[in-house]
Fold these 4 entries.
Entry 1:
Amino acid sequence: MKNLTFTLFISLIFFSCAPQRNLVYFSNLPKGSNDIIQSAAQLKLQKNDQLSISLTSLNTEYNVLFASANANNSNTPINSKGGFRINNAGNINLPLIGEVKVEGLSLEEAQALITQVLRKQIKDPYVDLQLVNFKITVIGEVNHPASLNVPGEQINLLEALGMAGDMTVFGKRENVLVIREEDGVRNMTRLNLNDKDSYNSPYFHLKQNDIVYVEPDKSKERQVNSNNTLLPIISTCVSAAAVLLTVILR
């Protein structure tokens, strides 16, 4: 009986030594909460973005020129959908028109500007503009790490994790790293996805070329390096159990 009690006691001490983890996103959000959260910031065009611009007008020559330019710029895998690249000066080079500054504009603003420029040469142009190389990368403790093409204009961190198969049970939801490069400056921030306030971070809504890294927790490290980390923990827990048991049996 004493041996059974001792075994159960040792097991209890050992498992109590393991850290408890919160696997629930936004776990501090009260039930029935109607918290106001910020909407995603509007996407702004950057250098090296690739724009697909299609033109529909009564001038078939212009229509063909735009269609041809889109096709001719699709010679690399990332630009397989074609388009016009924003150069280092923040401009795109349009057929028969020349360079137009679009860096820093939203897609709607760029579309309106291009339409305005074309109206000077052709009547009633209709311009459709899309960003074709909106890409993010999700790595670390997710089920399907990958570089992901984003079909729309917006994506948030939860959507990106969903596209990557969600975090594994070893992913640290309280410490997700987002790496972002803007104007040649690389910024990094960590978000706690257990905390509802992370939704209001400007890094929760991802931008083109962002990198998301999900850090593994200590239990994953112990599995990988069991000889270096697991044995000392077991030894510490057993020692603590032995001391407590000695005190109890006296």
Entry 2:
Amino acid sequence: MHFELESANNVFTFEGIYTPAVTPYAADGTIDYARFTEVLESLIEARVHGIIIGGSTGEYYAQSAEERMALAEHARKVIGSRLPLIVGTGAIRTEDAVAYAKHAREIKADAILVTTPPYALPTELENAHHALTVDKAAGLPIMLYNYPGRMGVSMGETFFTEVSRSANVVAIKESSGDLNNLHLLACKFPNIALSCGWDDQALEFFAWGARSWVCAGSNFIPREHVALYNACVVEKDFDKGRKIMAAMMPLMNFLDGGKFVQSIKYGVELNGVATGPVRAPLQALDEAEKQQLQAVIEGVKRNVAAITVL
């Protein structure tokens, strides 16, 4: 399993808050591109540092290949050069992931997100073969995405050793929830920049040198997420960071309770941008859940504002 690897000519560094954008749907279930534009513009206005299309929060798993590519193209046109655009390539078949990677290159995405193929349960060497195949197709900077809770297997030392042969592998969204993997990456693979992918461990990630955070909650409270990033990474004030983190924990606990995508989309609606339903098999929040989430968000905003001027 060896490749002639191409390195991206442009140097890309993941720093800051990267938002996996939600996908708004119309009442008939089709993608609402006008609302999608509103979502993207709201994130740019909120000063997040980059936008991810084709992530789990965007419901890529419930979309056709044509829809995924159309969303990425639309995002590229709306965003222009104002923010980096990262495109997800997640798929069960390597051939499909390669198609998404090639399309990302065609639309001049700034980087791609490369996951483990779900359900297939590849070995670490097979998973590395998959990632390097996608890499060769795109020739773009790569953020790996380790999420064994959804993918079934975890990226580990053997995988990281293999993929480190490519200079395009520059970062990882580490979402295993296993601090041992965080320590492994920080100590043995400093070439792969850490990005927090497990929200209630954000403080730990920043302490171990992470300089970015891929956080779905930044779809609707981006300023609060940026505040935590600024405290820990820019100001290096972990006392302040701990206070902000404590203020945000009720939201993280709510999201961990299930109905994750539904909660993110409802949070966006509370900001005045209609996102429509989630696609089946998911179902909307009930009224009690909506009221609870609204109260949690209001509390987070109030408590973070008391700590820092946003």
Entry 3:
Amino acid sequence: MRFDGIYTPVIAPHDAAGGIDRDAFVAMVDFLIEEGVHGIIVGGSTGEYYAQSLEERAELARLAQESIAGRVPLIVGTGAIRLPDSIAMAETAAEVGADAILIGSPPYTVPTERENALNALAIERAANLPVMLYNYPGRMGVEMGEEFLDRVGRSRNFVAIKESSGDINRVHLLARDYPHISMACGMDDQALEFFAWGARSWVAGGANFLPAEHIALWRACAVEGDFAKGRRIMSALLPLMRLLEQGGKFIQTIKHGVDMRGMRAGPPRPPLRPLNKDDKRALEQVVRVLRRTVAEIEAERARPAEQTRDEQKRPEQKKKDVA
């Protein structure tokens, strides 16, 4: 499997009582596919897997696959502290017909690189599906270092890594020394840098409510190779990225963004709480400006080349008219 494009770690909508809103979940999946995202990830941290039972996680994986109906790839998250729980999710992924699994380090346990690699290999064997690794030392407590990558890289199923360390040197390492493991952007405020170093995919939580704008940056950089345009789009996105990556309220912000688009997100599960009024206003202002700016940049792309040339000639024509 080749990861290419925007892969959205879909939220888990909740009703007022905190239960999973299945109709809203199906609507989210349909919305994302209609907007053009290239894949759906269920059971990631954006989907609040850590606050769900294994039964709920398995149900969402099945519901996602039924809703997707082959339109885009499905990736199922296997994250858990206990290896048997991760294996259970890997087996569920294979059972429902998922296209790949997401494997992170077990949080809190702080395994050695060898222990972490053996853990990942056990999960991979349970599914025998393509694997996207998830390196997020800020939450998991350990890094998927070179010893880890060398060990798991012996299996052809380990085809990609979502890099969320925030360390740009990791991007350099992966691009130069591990080109057989494709790099996916997992740090939103570094998306431009990832694409400059050859990343072909972006696991973007913000794409839950701004899929078109995330696709615009991916297309400009990864498809068109137009990094001048990419810098303009990234500049428009950066205020949102700062809210997501530096505000400490990642899931709450994304859920309010979904509500802003007219869909049902519901509250996050405890211990998280919804955004306060000030945070909501800040997000709403950022999104208004962002959408307008990216739309203007994209409108330039859609403008016929002849019209652009005519506009460039107008100043010269005006000079002749004055003369």
Entry 4:
Amino acid sequence: MSRPEAASALAAGPSASGDTGAAPRVGLVLLLSSAATFLAVLDTTVVNIAFPDLHRSFTHASVALLTWVVTAYAVPFAALLAPAGRVADVVGRRLLFLGSVGLFAVASALCATVANLPTLIGARALQGAAAAGMMPAALSLVLALVPPAQRMTSIGLVGAAGSVAAAVGPTLGGLLVDAWGWRSIFLINLPLGLLILLGALLGLPRDVRSGESLPDPIGVLGITCGAGCVVLGVTQGSDWGWRSASVLGLIGIGLPLTVVSLARARRHPAPALDVALWRSRTFTATNVTAFFFGAAMYAYLLGAILYLTVVWQYSEIKAGLAVTPGAFTAAVAALAVGRLVPSGRQWIAPVLGALVFAASVAGMYLLLGDSPAFLAVWLPAGLIGGVGIGATLTGLSVVASVSLPPHRFAAGSGLLMAARQVGGAVGIAGLGAILAAGHGMTAGGFLNVFLACAICAAVAALSALFLRPRRP
């Protein structure tokens, strides 16, 4: 489908997507999608702050083993996003949304009630797999069921929910752990998950199957295992050693397996990934931009918390509150991009947003040091950086959606989110490598991390220039 045809199909509204039944209320669709996105993103950051309390519960576990509570969520989340988007286009967005939210609630209950660390790690992996289904299904529901005139604003709202979740995770986690212990950060998911399930069952129309075959199971397995091995190897590189047999083996197996699986997808009649989407220059550019910006953003979010707690000696709750102002400016920027930036100009948001974020983090690199400077440097830089995050993520979602035909919304959303998550894994691995190779957990080490984040964000801004529509 050509770009003009895709734009026409996009403008055709919900009927073009294959959904039927009574038109749902726009507010309900937005509420459900935003809440699911909030849950999925929240659990990528909320656990970080619970490490000390986890260590008190599992006293015999090493710190390296405890990090698997985070890694076990991140690996299946990143590896399954793209295949999950393809599955949603075939089995139906509503069905995948309901199944994923239900699985996420069950996994959260398991996390809160486990008696040992291996079971907790397994439950976290189940949570990550469920989140990988929720995210593309949630965004594709918005794209398919919201009227065209409200679509960009709606994407801004969903993007704002994700931005807020990423930034308030440490604060919320600190408050919950301080009051009720680490199990409470999983119990909080249950009431929200059940409310989302009830709202989706009662308020979303039934899907009409596309008639396509389910994705190639061998391809899905290959891409999932390949991407999972690469993400795991990169994530653990700083802990295990970049020259260790485990890291080299994981990456050495994962990369070829991913390449072979992608080649298989190009020839298979029901591919695991819709690689044909990459024929669009615009969509490909959104993926590249998301990868580099994800590396910058996730490394910054983790590096900021560590810098505040290690260098400035902030408590976990105080550090969480210190990064929260950026969450609000990210939400405001996401809403503004979706509501105010006219169609055809959305490509400007990722360019300027990535540049603004790069400038804010570069300012931290130049102006911060060992002594606290919250009001003079940290607060203004965090507020400005939040604007960059909200503008970039929302602009990318809008541009990607316009470049896709409606029957590929979920597949495209999954690919875009997978690019960002894999970039995030690379960014966090880079953070560990920079700290290990240089000044360690000192002000100088973290400032070098901020410089690397600024460089990655600047590269994202350059790649976002290719989002500009070509002249006829």
